[in-house]
Amino acid sequence: MSQKIQLQEAFKLALSLMLFYGLALFMDWDMPKVGALAIVVTSLSTSGASFNKGVMRVVGTGLGALAGFVLLSWFSQSPLGMLLATSVWLVFVGYFLQTTRQGDTWFNAGLLAVAVWSSSYMRVDTAFHFATVRFLETAAGVLLFTIVGALLWPRTSGASLQQQGQALWEGLQTLFGQYRRQLSTGTAPADAAELRTRLAGEYQQLLATLEAACADTPKVGAKKRSWEILRINLRAFGNAQELWRESINDCRELDLGTLLPGLPAALDTLEQRLQRGHKLWQEQKTDIIEQAPDDTALLTKLSLQADSHGCKGLSHFQQAALMNFITQLQALDRSSRELLQTLRVLAYLDPDSKLPGHTKTADPFQPSAWNPERLLKATFPAICWIAGYAFWVFINPPGGPAIPMMAAVFGLMMVMAPANLFGLLIVLLLSMFITVAPVYLFLMPTLDSGFGLLALIFIYTFVFGYLGGRSPILKMGPLAMFVMMVDINNQQAYSFIALVTAGLVMMLGISIVVVVHRLLSPMHPEKILLRSMHRFLTGSARVIANFQLRSARQQRRNRKRRKRVFETAILPVSAQLLHIEKNLDYPLFPDNTPEKVHHLVDTLQSVRLRLQALEASYTTAASESPELLRYVGALNEKWRERIQMLFEKWARLEQTDVLINEWRSQPSLSQELEQRLDSLQQDSKLDEFDEQALRNIYALIGSTRSLLEAMQELGDSMQQINWNQWAVARF
User: Fold this and answer.
1) CB-CB neighbours of 331 under 10 Å
2) What is the 3-state secondary structure of 56-118?
3) 505: Cβ contacts below 8 Å, ≥ 6 apart
4) pLDDT at 296 over 50
5) Which terminal residue of the chain has fewer beta carbons within 10 Å of its beta carbon, N or C?
6) More confidently predicted of 480 and 300
7) What's the predicted TM-score (pTM) here?
8) How far apart are CA 385 and CA 402, in angstroms?
């Protein structure tokens, strides 16, 4: 962010806060701090992002108020019932806090429910007034900041969306170049893993920016469906590219240049397609308007077929690896064509009717909402709430019912955005005693007019709003503490005791959350990783278990089951592992170094990709070549049972030597598969089927062999991990 933009954003925030306090004091509102805090929290970089966050805050406040009313009406005479019912609501809120993009909505729904309870502790009849005022003043704060942001130097998200989309395209283009070099040199690029991790985060960032741009950029809003399809296609292309990379690894023993004479030309055409897309992002459209993408059957046109003479000396598994390589390259071709076509629609070179075959904009890579790990994590704010309640009842420190409320709020914050609680506590306390306390105790009592107070608010907000342009914590910490602790209103009173009590309540709330987090072993990162791995491996075993030869009806059921397992177990865990890896307390586990853990996570990602390839090839073989698939059914059943057994043993994390022996025994399975195909070929049984059926079966065999190799790599990486260190309980 440039210095000029920092000054503009700081001025808008300061002006909004000053105008809001002026209006609130003139109208004699009860709780101006609520609307002021909404302004501070929703002051993001663009108008659309601020508006969306403001709307979520207002909706969440209304939902929390309604929940608070219901709970009070049912359990106002039953403290235990109120405690348990509020805990259930916090679990509900904590779960949806993780599964939806409306995190602020659910956070405020949980916050206001416990705030309504806290306000009603002395008198129940005050709860309605408290919730109503809080809702209205939150809405007023959001509305005022929206108006100021729209009138003064409005910043839209359209440019950011364009930049992020172009960065994603360039990252995918860079990866394609690296994988092409890997194809020729046989050496994997060193920085590819880091780039893949960065792109995984940018997919979600693009989604958030798209939602903001739809709110503040009419041009993007008019093309919302096209942008959504483009985002999905970008991720689909990235996934296809990773599957192709895995197939490259399986062809290490093959001379692809000789076997596939059309390969260099095909790769050149793919690279040119990506370059054309890059020009579209840069709005260099002159040569592209004349040159519509006619390369609809790239690999067919370029005759990307294996040289029949060269294939004769290959083993069945080598032929299968070659077929898998071609299949994945064809999938990459289709994905890149759809991606470029969507980009052309967005560039107004083609009409919306030419959007590539998407009747819906549902994201196939979006995992299912159901996730037991998220449910376990959702219990955390409820446990913090109960612990805070017990601490208040039995210890009765200053602050009263505000203590369990703060414990629940910080518990929700930990679920929403895990943070270093000790660091957060230090920042808040420093903000209170270094910036807020001097202003509150020594400067504000000297003011003798409302204009002086508003000037102070403007200057204070402008300074920290400007500093927050470089470090957000420098904005949120001092400003949030100023709004909450000073509590400006027409009945203003200055009390050192009140300030210290507020700080004590906050410190106790955070301390309770810290202790609960430390005592709850399941919340530790290494325990989450162990459970995630168990879920991933168990899910993989369930996927393999559903690769069974049955009737056509049963095949459809099995396909639906596999899809459900992918959505509920494999895809969400695969995405989660990338974050868990970064949060592990490595100094506590010296044997499990970051390099070993990264290798473990990377091999799990490889297994996930190869399971996806196996799913695709099996579905194709079952639908297009069912007779041949049944003919080699014994072959299919053998590998299915063994791979399923291996995944199940790994999921139980049996003894290390058992694990090693299991994955090392898999080459014998490969030999059995090879011998089976040889016998079929010698009996001339394979000649009874057409070429496409044989291709489908070889693609299936290639995917199977590819999965076996990934599992061998996984077994090797699991051997390097000291599982006992992670299994031991710690504080």
Assistant:
1) 20
2) HHHHHHHHHHHHHHHHHHHHCCCHHHHHHHHHHHHHHHHHHHHHCCCHHHHHHHHHHHHHHHH
3) 398, 399, 402, 403, 406
4) no
5) C
6) 480
7) 0.81
8) 11
Band (pLDDT 50/70/90 cuts) for residue 485 is: confident
More confident residue, 229 or 316: 229
Q: Which tokens go with 695? A: 């291709």
Tokens of 577: 């592992």
Rounded Cα gap, residues 544 and 697, in angstroms: 17
Q: How far is CA 538 from CA 363, 543, 618, 713, in A?
A: 24, 9, 20, 18
* Helix, strand, coil content of the chain in percent (nearest 5): 80, 0, 20
Instruction: List C-alpha distances in Å: 43 to 50, 195, 207, 435, 571.
Output: 6, 31, 19, 20, 34
- For the chain, state the CA radius of gyration: 30
List, in order of start, the domains of the chain with CATH numbers.
Answer: 3-155+368-521 (no CATH), 158-354 (1.20.58), 524-727 (1.20.58.220)
Convert the pLDDT of each residue in 74-130 to its tens digit. 887 888 888 899 999 999 999 888 876 777 888 889 988 888 888 766 555 677 777
> How many residues are listed for the chain in this entry?
731
User: Residue 662: in which H helix or E strand, if any?
Assistant: helix 656-664
Mean pLDDT of 653-668: 57
Per-residue CA distances from 55 to 135, 353, 639 (Å): 12, 33, 53
